[in-house]
User: Fold this.
Amino acid sequence: MTLRRWDPFHRAARPAARSGARSAARSVARPFARPVVARAALLVALCVALPAGAAAVVALRAERGSYAATHHQVVAQVMDERAVVARVTWDGGRRSGWARRPLERVSDTAVRIWLDDLGRPASRPVGAVEVVFGFLLAALPAGTLTWLAVPALYAWWTARRAVARWDREWRDHRYPG
Assistant:
């Protein structure tokens, strides 16, 4: 027996006619052996993944739009800078807080920070990178699960048909006529 690289689109050389339990077991054991199933699984996976990713993009864009209504940006002075956060003051030193890094620098000591509607430091709004990452986080799992589910459903359907055929053959053989 020789080992070969696994390829979902591989067209195995098929004999002219296969019948019986051996061919049914073969199609159940290797659902990707049929190129039509592999291509259909890929097509269905894309049809599921793209709308899932698009829904994530729409949700993140809506969040970005509502963020501007409740948050605003101010220039603050850096008082103490650490590895992850920085102590900043704004409103002429009357207010202070911790801001997460990386900071958007205006000068060596001045940075731009976002404040929520209560005047507390907040994270920056969702950017383009986060939107793309959200698309990928929604689309890849949805597409992968669908791509794996279609051949499994095909194998289940094929096995069910094979068992029904065997049952008919057994009944016809046991009770002829």
Q: What stands out?
A: Helices lie at 21-29, 35-70, 128-174.
